[in-house]
Design a protein that fits this description.
- The chain has 747 residues and is α/β, with parallel strands linked by helices.
- The chain has 20 helices and 31 strands.
- Helix 7 runs antiparallel to helix 15, helix 8 packs parallel to helix 10 and helix 15 packs across helix 19.
- The protein is globular.
- The two termini are 13 Å apart.
- The N terminus is likely disordered.
- It binds beta-D-glucopyranose.
- The site of beta-D-glucopyranose (BGC) has 8 residues, from strand 4.
Length: 747
């Protein structure tokens, strides 16, 4: 059995056991029906699914493969039985198969506004912040917290797990995604999914499969990429995420991949996902991503979502396609079996209705912990932490008196405490601020200081006041949103000029960036300190203030490269027409009329790999981040048995404050040719001053391999590989060589 299959089954046994053991105790009537339909209390999920499938009518089967919008649409009310959210799939009550109530939930439950007016949910920091923690335990906690809040509202499917790689720093959804590296993204997304699915009765997706790395033209984009390069980059992130998170569902993306829409792409859905990775769950479409029935069904799509948005409905002629043999009955049965298997594996049939009330104090603590560890200190000339006895602090801009920004689109959470502020960025496009005001939190951290605020609208006025302060903290915001990539890497609305003037007036200026990705900093040399806080979530203001005061020593490390200019990127301009990602859906019978082909010529050389290959120097490299202490890394050791490679190094806290070090290991070779540089693993060590710890990692052998698409396997070439260790992709101070024999690994 392949590893992925084994892990998947092991998880199911774990999920199913409580159901099997506590069967009698579970709502007796419902359980009895389920047992009758599912075939008995001791069956595993697949057997139970098979037993139910065998008793289902053709109509019941079609019901399960067909999803609609869960909220009112046009003049139609929400579907009967729906909570009111992104998606709804009717259940089959006579077998105890519950309806699927689907909500977006990457950064918190995104749909509370639709359920009950005034309902709100905990807004988690951006996934970029979560990724910057490099801490899978925190990602798991995030999943648990969001999962609990979702279950408490009766949702049983989370549209979470956004595993797309950050290929371009201007990508509109980068704040929802994790990183530019497949190992980091895969591990973090897998942990978040695992956390969510640890709540009884919850399936999480992993999405958007695959290569939906830009918003420009997303529905008409054909991403042309070498298949092996895709396997070594974007698909590897998904592969690791699927292995670790065991998501009940995979959401296929809007775009095409090498000439076929992702949701009708048999290479992606059947060859890679289901055959090579042994995936047993079901594939659901993104909302509006279905354009055919027979092609989609044959390619491996198992369930249509939000049918009102699709140009061609999967359901329209699936029944006749099956009757005529254009889609084999076995394929329809496979769709249903997969859906049922996930439903049983994750306990949906055994935990109907709403889950327990969530522990909101724990949600808050999780949001705070993520932002404390996820904000990245980029520059510090000794200005931070600000001294406790500081006299006058001048805070400028970014609505810091009201809250912290959040990213736009389907992941938008209506935060607890209500929307602190809305700033319009074009028609119907509102940036929403989460009510965790940095200004108030700074006042709490510095109770003896005189803390004043200016909205920054007049740079002259702000610069005059700044000159008189002991320290200035400027908040700079760049809003990013689904459906729209940023045109460039600049801060908008004249904020560069504002910072320039203020930093000129007072070099004791801290710039707090609240952005959904890398930005340019023309004023960098003037700034005393720069903190990248991303979108800070429900406790963002508190975490930022704690870092400024030194109550928290920031451990965050960049999950993306900060370039010096757009000219350094594989694509100096994002290709395509920004209007190609319509904000409204096209819907049934609609046509997009054109397809835009994008050559992903950088292949697997995403982010820092591109920079290394081209010998380009970024402003801040991948993996980078400062601390209020310093760490020393030495004594890199590498041992190999066959292709099992273990690496270790000792890390010491050489400063005077406790802190968290994130030593990183990279691999390149053989002879620098095939693999220019790849993150091979990392450790996270909490070290007291003077303390020394050991970082050790077992390297995933796929990171020594390239993918052979013809032979459908990973191939490690015989030769000498170089392992380097350091604190970011550029400063790798230790190196050692390891010789590996040639070997093949299953796909
Ligand atoms: C997004 C998905 C989301 C879905 C449902 C789509 O536009 O791409 O991420 O889950 O809408 O809201």
């Amino acid at each position: 059995m392949r590893t992925s299959e084994r892990r998947f089954d092991a998880r199911w046994i774990r999920e199913v056991r409580p159901w099997a053991l506590g069967f009698v105790a579970i709502v007796a009537a419902a359980a009895a029906t389920a047992r009758a339909g599912g075939g008995g209390g001791e069956l595993g999920p697949s057997e139970r699914a098979q037993a139910t499938l065998e008793r289902m009518t053709a109509t019941e089967k079609l019901t399960l493969v067909h999803g609609v919008l869960g909220a009112p649409w046009g003049k139609k009310p929400k579907p009967s039985g729906a909570i009111g959210s992104a998606g709804f799939v009717a259940g089959v009550p006579r077998f105890g198969v519950p309806a699927l109530q689907e909500t977006d939930a990457e950064l918190g439950v995104a749909n509370p506004g639709n359920i009950r007016r005034g309902d709100t949910a905990t807004a988690m920091p951006a996934n970029l912040a979560l990724a910057s923690t490099w801490d899978p335990a925190l990602a798991r906690r995030q999943g648990e917290a969001v999962g609990s809040e979702a279950r408490a509202r009766g949702f049983n499917v989370l549209l979470g797990g956004a595993a797309n790689l950050i290929r371009d720093p201007r990508g509109g959804r980068n704040f929802e995604y994790f990183s530019e590296d497949p190992l980091l993204s895969g591990i973090m997304v897998g942990a978040a999914i695992d956390g969510a699915q640890s709540r009884p009765g919850l399936i999480s997706t992993i999405k958007h499969f695959a290569l939906n790395d830009q918003e420009t033209d997303r529905v008409v984009l054909d991403v042309r990429i070498d298949r092996a390069a895709a396997r070594e980059s974007d698909l590897l992130a998904f592969e690791i995420g699927v292995e670790r998170g065991q998501p009940g569902s995979v959401m296929c993306a809007y775009n095409q991949v090498n000439g076929a829409y992702a949701c009708e792409n048999s290479w992606l859905l059947t060859e890679v996902l289901k055959k090579d990775w042994g995936y047993k769950g079901f594939v659901m479409s993104d909302w509006g991503a279905v354009h055919s029935t027979v092609r989609s069904a044959l390619a491996g799509l198992d369930q249509e979502s939000g049918e009102q948005l699709d140009t061609r409905n999967f359901m329209d002629d699936l029944a006749s396609a099956v009757a005529e043999g254009a889609v084999p009955q076995a394929r329809l049965d496979d769709m249903v079996r997969r859906i049922l298997t996930s439903v049983y594996a994750h306990g949906l049939a055994d935990s109907a209705g709403e889950g327990d009330p969530p522990n909101l104090a724990e949600s808050d603590a999780t949001a705070l912990a993520i932002e404390r560890s996820g904000a990245v200190l980029l520059q510090n000339n000794g200005l931070l932490p600000l001294p406790a006895d500081i006299g006058r602090i001048f805070v400028v801009g970014g609505h810091a008196d009201l809250g912290v920004p959040s990213g736009g689109g389907s992941s938008q959470v209506i935060p607890r405490g209500g929307i602190a502020a809305k700033q319009y960025e074009g028609r119907n496009r509102a940036m929403i601020f989460t009510p965790s005001a940095p200004l108030e939190a700074i006042r709490r951290q510095f109770p003896h200081a005189q803390v004043e605020y200016d909205d920054g609208r007049s740079p002259e006025r702000a610069a005059d006041a700044a000159a008189k302060a002991d320290a200035v903290i400027v908040f700079a915001v760049k809003w990013m949103s689904e459906t729209r990539d940023a045109e460039n890497l600049a801060l908008p609305h004249g904020q560069d000029q504002l910072i320039e003037r203020i930093a000129h007036a007072n070099p004791r200026t801290v710039v707090v960036l609240e952005t959904g990705g890398a930005v340019l900093m023309p004023w960098r040399e003037r700034a005393g300190a720069i903190l990248e806080a991303w979108y800070g979530g429900q406790k963002g203001g508190e975490a930022i203030a704690e870092i400024l005061s030194g109550a928290v020593n920031p451990p965050g490390r960049l999950p993306v490269t900060f370039p010096a200019s757009e000219a350094q990127l594989p694509h100096p301009k994002i290709e395509g027409d920004p209007r190609g990602a319509p904000e409204g859906p096209v819907g049934r019978g609609g046509r997009y009329g054109r397809i835009f082909t994008a050559d992903t010529s950088e292949g697997a050389a995403v982010g820092y790999k591109w920079f290394v290959e081209r010998s380009e120097k970024p402003v801040f490299p991948f993996g980078y981040g400062l601390s209020y202490t310093t760490f020393r890394l030495q004594g890199l050791k590498v041992t190999a048995e066959g292709n099992a490679v273990k690496v270790s190094a000792s890390v010491a806290n050489a400063g005077s404050r406790a802190g968290i070090a994130t030593p990183q290991f990279y691999v390149s070779g053989p002879d620098g040719a095939r693999i220019p540089l790849r993150l091979a693993g990392w450790s996270r060590l909490a070290l007291a001053p003077g303390e020394e710890g050991q970082a050790s990692v077992t390297v995933d052998p796929r990171l020594f391999a390239t993918f052979d698409e013809a032979a459908r396997c990973w191939r490690i070439a015989a030769g000498t590989y170089r392992i380097t260790a350091g604190f970011d992709a550029e400063s790798r101070t230790e190196s050692a060589d390891v010789s590996l024999p040639a070997s093949d690994l299953p796909p």
